[in-house]
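User: Can you write out an input/output pair for a complex, sequences first and structure second?

Assistant: Here is one pair. Inputs:
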Amino acid sequence: MPRLREKTKKAEILSLEEAVKRYVKDGQVIAFSGFTGFNRNPVALTWEAIRQGRKDFHVLDRHGSCSSWLLNAVGAMKIYETDWMGWGEMAGKLDINLNKRYQRGEVILEDYSHGAIAMRFLAGAIGAPFIPYYAPLGSDLYDDKYDALGKAGLRDGKHPKISKKKYIQMDEPFWGDGQVMLLPAARPDIALIHVAQCGEKGTARWRGIGTIDKELVFACDKVIITCEEIVPESELRKEPNLNQIPYFTVDAIVECPYGGYPSAVPFYYDYDAPFMRGMDAASRNEDDMKKWVDEWIYGPATWNDLIVKVGAKRLLELKADSTTGYSTRILRGKKPAPRVTMPLSVARSGY
Amino acid sequence: MADYNTMEQMIVTGSRELLPGVSVAVGTGAPCAAAMLAQKTHAPDLLIIFEAGGIDPQLPEMPISVGDSRTIWKASQATSMTDTMEAFCRGMVDYTFLGGAQIDMYGNLNSTRIGPDHQKPKVRFPGSGGANDFGSFCWNMMIMTPQDSQRFTEKCDFITTPGYLQGGNSRDESGLPKGTGPYRIITNMAVFDFEPESKRMRIISINPGYSEKDVQDNCGFELLKAKKIKDTHPPTQKELTVLREQVDPYRYVIGR
């Protein structure tokens, strides 16, 4: 039976607290926007969910991010269907908390690849039950011996959001192409999305890369959007070709400046790599981790207070250029070079 | 020893494989440095693709992440991962660079775990990311990695990204696209290709400062040898200058 969602939605503008209270529930299958820990992670939403004590999430996402890192820092993730256990590339590849919890058997980890998860969301977005994909052929990622959800007895058909099989390999029946792998659609309960701009009806826009966020909003049952700014719909409709999310997919809109921090929002602010390295360093020691959680998750009274705590000096450094979309004021890397107004390589690129 | 390090040698060797006009999919780190170096030296029109959505940028400085906004500077498109996967699936990407914790003689790669027990591995790595997709669809898969006999192993504990599987025709028989597969392995000691029939790894050139014995001693399986094994060209002064001053001035990669 085709899987239709309820009729056209009407999005409400809510506070961060209210949006989480109303839509985010324990044990949900959840998906996040952005790319790894660096681009448009819905950090404020995840942060608020943790503060409201939400737990036991089944995260279905291509890779770790600041959001998945926060969930593992407080032990709020139970199942992780992913393809990359890192969260921040050069800022600390493997998510230490996730690895510890995985080794202790507290998280079930189901491995795919980037393309495989993207394809699963594409299938979810068009309401299809599965999608054929060639890349998985020959990989041990698709071997019943390593089917973690199957081993845990969760593919028994009693869990509506967990497919009865991880994959099916078959002979391609239409063209005679040979072997092909079928992957189950992704059908999460809720998508948490952070974007640059959202209209009061829910039409949303980002600049820079989109990863699979457009597919997310169609594949997930509920969609919460946080944005750097709510802008008049009429403004967004002057250039409709620049809008990526249609309003009728959205349930709740939250205006939350710096809601993606410490990940980047292109043309608004850059990622805060030193802060992320601090997160990674804290996760290497139980005491440091506890201190970090108390200081940054439970310390600030509101998200705005957290941003105030980060401080104007840091935010000025992160402020994105209007031409490049990222900051050429902040210097990255373990040993910051002396302050210059622009890295040499940018100057030479003809900026 | 010459005044460059082995990471610089690997990046330079990798960049020389990227001829003008070809397309390459890269992640961050050494592969990105090799692509940037090629773009800034002999191949200004090199088409670089990042799976998060950046298509054909002129990289201004080293992106830390594949989702970094530096990956869309002067790009043709800032699009989505489903869109970039279309390019992969349709064979529009000529080259890719991957890495792995283990690699065997057929170029199969493990970036998932070490140890016999999948649920309780000795070491767990982040996993595939885009590697499985790149390795399956890019015409020529290249690997840039330091070499030792643990990493170059008889048998991978887990095949995350298939190379030539069990050698011979086994990759084709698995259903993966014909004509694709591992192409070059670039290490700190040597460069390898794959013998066309057996699909086994073969030494084609050896880096300055290393002997054939070093290369074999630091490999966990028997390597084939090309009829004539060449000396790998050391980096030129121009390549080193561009690499150090424009590609990686903060030594993120070459300082490792």
